[in-house]
Write a structure and sequence with these properties.
29% of the residues lie in helices and 29% in strands. It has 2 domains: 2-121, D-amino Acid Aminotransferase, Chain A, domain 1 (2-Layer Sandwich), CATH 3.30.470.10; 127-285, Alpha-Beta Barrel (D-amino Acid Aminotransferase, Chain A, domain 2), CATH 3.20.10. The chain contains 8 helices and 16 strands. The chain is an alpha+beta fold and 293 residues long. Strands 7, 8, 9, 10, 11, 12, 13, 14, 15 and 16 form a 10-stranded mixed β-sheet that branches.
């Protein structure tokens, strides 16, 4: 089915397998580009204003402006998701600095970005798999110091995930200066004595859209939470560990570096948060809003 889908490319809708940018595109040559991944539950995109605000922040950080308005992005998302009516999807969008005749590290004066977007079907959530939880390891964070920019320069993340896979884990939690930052493609939470904790915003971690929703759900449900540094001892002695992302949603970590987290099964607080998150998704599928005031 995905082979016949159309993709958006610089104002046109073209077959996904034929959408191309020149080999001199700066996103390809330098990783000079930013991106977003937006879930669409039942074909309804999830927290679009939040994703587009983060896109604006990422573009501003690399000295670019958003080439499209929010209304233009909305129309693109509607056109793409309508190809898979009622399906859970993942919308990928990328803005590169553009294609220029000469390969040069200097940023060109005339910015002519390449804009790409496409959608694909998300596999159905397996509740049994979610309830089994995931295994993680910890690794040194070798990434650069602007991880708050959602840039396509992800080689360090890719290598860390590869090492996790080789060691039989599902994900790696990255450690910098003795503090746990986030996963290779996920944000981090721990639960300790009933308090839900996530690392504070900083240039060295991505401000996750799902992470922010979890904090909103905590506030709405009266669950105590805080943004605070999570040291290795905090991680190792946590009652629960979660990893959140657009694709993982809220994943319970049941094993850390070969040792069980808690009793080795998803904890009580995770079950509560997962139920809140799934209810939020269902509201969106039914035409409501996943926003929490």
């Amino acid at each position: 089915m995905n082979d016949s889908l159309l993709a958006y490319l610089n104002g046109e809708y073209v077959p996904k397998d034929q959408a191309c940018v020149p080999i001199t595109d700066r996103g390809l040559l330098f990783g000079d580009s930013v991106y977003e991944v937006i879930p669409a539950y039942g074909g309804r995109p999830f927290r679009v204003p939040h994703h587009l605000r983060r896109l604006d922040r990422s573009l501003a950080a690399i000295r670019m402006q958003n080439p499209l308005s929010q209304d233009e992005w909305q129309k693109i998302f509607e056109r793409l998701t309508q190809q898979l009516p009622g399906k859970d999807q993942s919308i990928y969008l990328q803005v590169t600095r553009g294609s220029y005749p000469v390969r040069n590290h200097v940023i060109p004066d005339d910015i002519q970005p390449n804009v790409i977007a496409f959608t694909s079907v998300n596999p159905a959530r397996d509740p049994d798999k979610a309830r089994r939880g995931i295994k993680v390891i910890t690794l040194e964070d070798i990434r650069w110091h602007r991880c708050d920019i959602k840039a396509t320069t992800l080689l360090a993340n890719v290598l860390a995930r590869a090492q996790a896979t080789e060691e039989g884990a599902d994900e790696a939690i990255l450690i910098r200066d003795a503090a746990a930052m986030e996963g290779t493609a996920s944000n981090l939470f721990v639960v300790s004595n009933g308090l839900v904790i996530t690392p504070p915003d900083s240039p060295e971690l991505l401000p996750g859209i799902t992470r922010d929703l979890v904090l909103e759900l905590c506030r709405e449900a009266g669950v105590p939470f805080a943004q605070a540094t999570i040291g290795m001892p905090d991680l190792e002695h946590a009652d629960e560990i979660w990893l959140t992302s657009s694709t993982r949603e809220v994943a319970a970590v049941v094993e850390l570096n070969g040792r069980p987290v808690g009793n080795g099964t998803p904890g009580e607080m995770w079950h509560r948060m997962d139920a809140l998150f799934q209810a939020c998704k269902e509201r969106l599928r039914l035409g409501g809003d996943c926003h929490v005031d």
